[in-house]
């Protein structure tokens, strides 16, 4: 199977995550999308537990049979690194396509054991239509291909102006997050008292 991977903190998962995943699944003829909420990421401290972020992701994706949520990182002890996740997933015969944003493209070299990761997955870079530095992207992709033999593809995605940071701030301020987050996730956030 051809499987796309949506990683990230999912703090909280929102409609843009789901729309991007569906868009890329269709454009690249992927069989499934695995959503893998991070456990304890090395680069940031999160106020919401990995279990709650995992549960929100399950709630958000339950009605799409092509979406599956894995707890491979949320159950991992200690810091969570992509190389460990990809090493575990690569024990199957599936082809993996790690979905990243333009900003992450320029951080790949800083990932732990990126050389190993580059042998275990292909990458799809979701480029926003308003991103205007095509030359910089092309140069970075060429450099990564040359240095690591990376298989990397570009995906143009519609412009979705939704961010988890904005959603958390809106909840803190008592403002609506309807139409930014699935309704059942909103109910979960309210029930659990998250982001207050």
From TrEMBL:
Signal peptide span: none
Organism for this UniProt entry: Peptoniphilus duerdenii ATCC BAA-1640
InterPro entries named among the record's database cross-references: Cyt_trans-like, NadD/NMNAT, Rossmann-like_a/b/a_fold
Lineage summary: Bacteria, Bacillati, Bacillota, Tissierellia, Tissierellales
EC number in record: 2.7.7.18
Pfam families given in the database record: CTP_transf_like (PF01467)
Entry's Gene Ontology molecular function annotations: ATP binding; nicotinate-nucleotide adenylyltransferase activity
Similarity section: Belongs to the NadD family.
Descriptive protein name: Probable nicotinate-nucleotide adenylyltransferase
Enzyme's top EC category: transferase
Domain of life: Bacteria
Recorded metabolic or biological pathway in which this protein acts: Cofactor biosynthesis; NAD(+) biosynthesis; deamido-NAD(+) from nicotinate D-ribonucleotide: step 1/1
Gene name in the database record: nadD
Keywords per UniProt: ATP-binding, NAD, Nucleotide-binding, Nucleotidyltransferase, Pyridine nucleotide biosynthesis, Transferase
Domain Cytidyltransferase-like: 5-170
One of the GO biological process terms: NAD+ biosynthetic process
Function comment: Catalyzes the reversible adenylation of nicotinate mononucleotide (NaMN) to nicotinic acid adenine dinucleotide (NaAD).
Keyword ATP-binding: yes
NCBIfam families named in the record: cyt_tran_rel (TIGR00125), nicotinate (nicotinamide) nucleotide adenylyltransferase (TIGR00482), PRK00071.1-3 (NF000840)
Catalytic activity reported: nicotinate beta-D-ribonucleotide + ATP + H(+) = deamido-NAD(+) + diphosphate
SUPFAM superfamilies: Nucleotidylyl transferase
């Amino acid at each position: 199977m051809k499987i796309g991977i949506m990683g990230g903190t999912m703090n909280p998962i929102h409609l843009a995550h789901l729309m991007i995943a569906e868009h890329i699944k269709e454009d690249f003829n992927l069989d499934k999308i695995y959503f893998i909420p991070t456990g304890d990421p090395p680069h940031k401290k999160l106020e919401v537990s990995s279990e709650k972020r995992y549960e929100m992701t399950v709630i958000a994706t339950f009605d799409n049979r092509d979406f599956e949520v894995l707890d491979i990182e949320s159950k991992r002890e200690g810091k969570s690194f992509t190389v460990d996740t990809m090493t575990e997933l690569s024990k199957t015969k599936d082809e993996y396509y790690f979905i990243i944003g333009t900003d992450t493209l320029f951080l790949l070299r800083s990932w732990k054991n990126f050389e190993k990761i580059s042998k275990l997955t292909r990458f799809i870079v979701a480029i926003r239509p308003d991103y205007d530095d095509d030359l910089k992207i092309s140069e970075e992709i060429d450099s990564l291909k040359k240095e690591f033999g990376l298989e990397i593809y570009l995906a143009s995605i519609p412009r979705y102006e939704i961010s988890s940071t904005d959603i958390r701030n809106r909840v803190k301020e008592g403002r609506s997050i309807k139409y930014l987050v699935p309704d059942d996730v909103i109910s979960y956030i309210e029930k659990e008292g998250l982001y207050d």
